[in-house]
Amino acid sequence: MASRKSIKEESEIHQSELSDNFKGLKFLKNIAISSRGPHGKVKVIQNSAGGHVTLTSSSGRLLPALSISRPLLKLLTTSAEGQIQTFGDGGLFLMACCLNIVELSEDSLTGNRILIEIFEELMELALGELKSDNFLGKIHLSLSNTVQILSLVKTILSSKPLCKLSEDSVNHLASMIVECFLSSVKDDKNTNSVLILTAEGKSVNQSHHLPGILMLYPEISSSCKKKLHFITKDEKIVVALVTTSMSGDSEEVIQGRYQQNIEVDAEQTVIECMKSFCHCIKDCGVGMLMCQKVVHPIIKSQLRQNGIFVVERMGAKLTSFVQDLTGATPMESFSCKPEKYLGSLDTVNHVILNKKSYLHLQRASSGMNTLVLCNLEEEMVSELKVVCETALNTLQDILQYPILLCGGGCWETCLCFHIKQKVKENQGFILEKTVCTASALSAASEIFTKSLLQVAKTTGYSGAMMMTSFPTFHSWRVPLNSDDFDPDNVLTCNCGMVTEPAKKLMSVNEVNLTILKVDTVLKEEVCKLQQISQSKSCVVDSYISNVSAFRKAVFTAIMMLNVGNCLQDIN
């Protein structure tokens, strides 16, 4: 078999099984577990050839920095990266939960095929519990209640130790993010509402936000602020947004078959077409042309002679923000009628920030904002940017799914015991459907719920005992061998919503499932949690993001357990 890299070398196919990948899987598991939560450890990553050193505990920066080639490990990281791309969060949870299931399954005496069938049934039970109105690990969110929204943002900001955020810094950033988000919400929808810029060498509390968009514009000197003048129409700056190249290499005019003629210059033909386009936008009263790509010097000179301000090389991401800000429709052809595509701005000013020149674009009705994030070091700023992007993505998700989970490991612990009870109640049905033995069901249920509990434990500091209490089954961390422990002390659960005397707490390994049959108090407890969350700052997680990560973790574990052989061309 010929190699795709070299016809002179023969490919070598490497075969491996799940057990052959345990070392790599355990390595990934340790990375995921030790990176989670505010007590997580920062990872230092550099490839074998040297190069940039990345410091992070965020899955959004961690996974792209890892060089993974083994198919089974790549299957896991690809699943986690897909979760991050969709929701911006949940990558570490997915990896930790998935690998817990795989590791415990391999240690079990029950065969993988039977375990897989039972896991699928347990997943359905778990999703049913998460959707239930009586599930005591979730609360409903109201966009009119800023306490709940701030709790969500603070939880996300506090989860990354590399950012080194004090309580004041967390409050400052959370207030800015929520203010930017709420100002962008229109009819329960928002788009590219917040542009994030970074500045290193300054304290976090110097972070600030501005209405509109700040975009880098090095063509103006940063030595002093410059007064800009624009052609206006009805006191508005009319904007033309172009996404095709204006460098003279456009294929729009030069297409089809034609005979070569030495008197015809292809580039000049395109330039003449663009000049005609420029005359059209001038007649429409355009004061600013913004191009995603390059503008030819001749065209740029003509536009400026006509008083039209030119911005070029914006790139796709910034073009998307400009489109939302101005209301302009991108023009992809020089033959279109510009008047149907134009947008507008209220003001454009020159701003100097960190000794760099920026254009400050504003339109009052857009709801767009620029968030300028500051921190002392480059890696700290990069980490802070990722965390704030996660917070903004999560806030967008709650517009469609206004539900939150009780954080700090509480929802995982609560779900664990609800699953155990559901298995006990539906044992006969599950055994009949999966055609397995009671011992196999018991083993699979233990693996499934223990995996959740292990994930819950990773959200806090080590050296503490996980405890719970009826009827909420939230989680508490009680220090081991503490001389100051008093059974009469009232302790608060990890999410901050439930308080119980220490003497009423029990180890998560000592819960008697028979007491779960008491169902009359559940609705009262749900109401209590809802009221507390609306008036007190608590630790909360995104419902849609975490449920998605949980589902993907189980399905990825099932795929990994189902793998017979991994074949890899190592040439």
TrEMBL record:
This is McKusick-Kaufman/Bardet-Biedl syndromes putative chaperonin. Coiled coil: none annotated. It comes from Magallana gigas (Pacific oyster). GO terms for cellular component: cytoplasm; kinociliary basal body; nucleus. One of its GO terms (molecular function) is unfolded protein binding. One of its GO terms (biological process) is chaperone-mediated protein complex assembly. It comes from the Eukaryota. PANTHER family: MOLECULAR CHAPERONE MKKS, SYNDROMES PUTATIVE CHAPERONIN-RELATED. InterPro entries: Cpn60/GroEL/TCP-1, GroEL-like_apical_dom_sf, GROEL-like_equatorial_sf, MKKS, TCP-1-like_intermed_sf.
